[in-house]
Amino acid sequence: MHTDVQEILFTEEEVAAKVRELGELITREYQGKELLVIGILKGAAMFMGDLVKRIGMVVEMDFMAVSSYGKSSESSGVVRIIKDLDKSIEGRHVLIVEDIIDTGLTLHYLKNLLEQRNAASVKVAALLDKPERRQVEISPDYLGFSVPDHFIVGYGLDFAERYRNLPYVGVLKPEVYQS
Ligand code: 5GP
Ligand code: MG
Ligand code: MG
């Protein structure tokens, strides 16, 4: 385990098993449809890559990069789009893939935005959820795991751009982000 990690919440094997399960569920629920999977950079990159390999149907992939206005530590709900989608999503079945839902503000904004672009449907797959922190009513259609209110890193999730490549999901030691 990395010395900056306090505790492993989900091992590489546990994450892989969950992602496989979610992929199978998504495959069943979108039977006969084509899916546009939209990964939210950069945190969802690992989850997205593993998840689409477990979806057994026609899938296109696109990515968005967003950042929250205001203080970087707290989500403001107003989202700046750093990288938009490559193509129109009109009439498409869209699945947004996120790393973690915290206040819910980012996803709430994104979901509304994509619905306004006249997608046929917009659903959300999130690897992690911190329900205690929610400020707007939103929940993922497909969820990996619920987590307590700690700062999580690994499997795509960063602190100051580090720890994304840890193969597991863990809790960052508070002294690392407090110093
Ligand atoms: P929200 O708008 O739901 O508050 O913010 C969601 C975004 O904040 C996530 O997509 C993620 O990028 C970031 N975030 C929230 N909680 C954590 C956490 O515990 N660890 C990391 N690394 N990022 C988090
Ligand atoms: Mg994110
Ligand atoms: Mg981050």
Automatic annotation (TrEMBL):
Pfam families: Pribosyltran. Residues 9-159 form the Phosphoribosyltransferase domain. GO terms for biological process: GMP salvage; guanine salvage; hypoxanthine metabolic process; IMP salvage; purine ribonucleoside salvage. The keyword Glycosyltransferase applies. Keywords: Cytoplasm, Glycosyltransferase, Magnesium, Metal-binding, Nucleotide-binding, Purine salvage, Transferase. Its EC number is 2.4.2.8. CDD domains: PRTases_typeI (cd06223). The keyword Nucleotide-binding applies. It catalyses: GMP + diphosphate = guanine + 5-phospho-alpha-D-ribose 1-diphosphate; IMP + diphosphate = hypoxanthine + 5-phospho-alpha-D-ribose 1-diphosphate. Pathway: Purine metabolism; IMP biosynthesis via salvage pathway; IMP from hypoxanthine: step 1/1; Purine metabolism; GMP biosynthesis via salvage pathway; GMP from guanine: step 1/1. Signal peptide: none annotated. GO terms for cellular component: cytosol. NCBIfam families: HGPRTase. Belongs to the purine/pyrimidine phosphoribosyltransferase family. Purine salvage pathway enzyme that catalyzes the transfer of the ribosyl-5-phosphate group from 5-phospho-alpha-D-ribose 1-diphosphate (PRPP) to the N9 position of the 6-oxopurines hypoxanthine and guanine to form the corresponding ribonucleotides IMP (inosine 5'-monophosphate) and GMP (guanosine 5'-monophosphate), with the release of PPi. This is Hypoxanthine phosphoribosyltransferase. It comes from Tumebacillus avium.
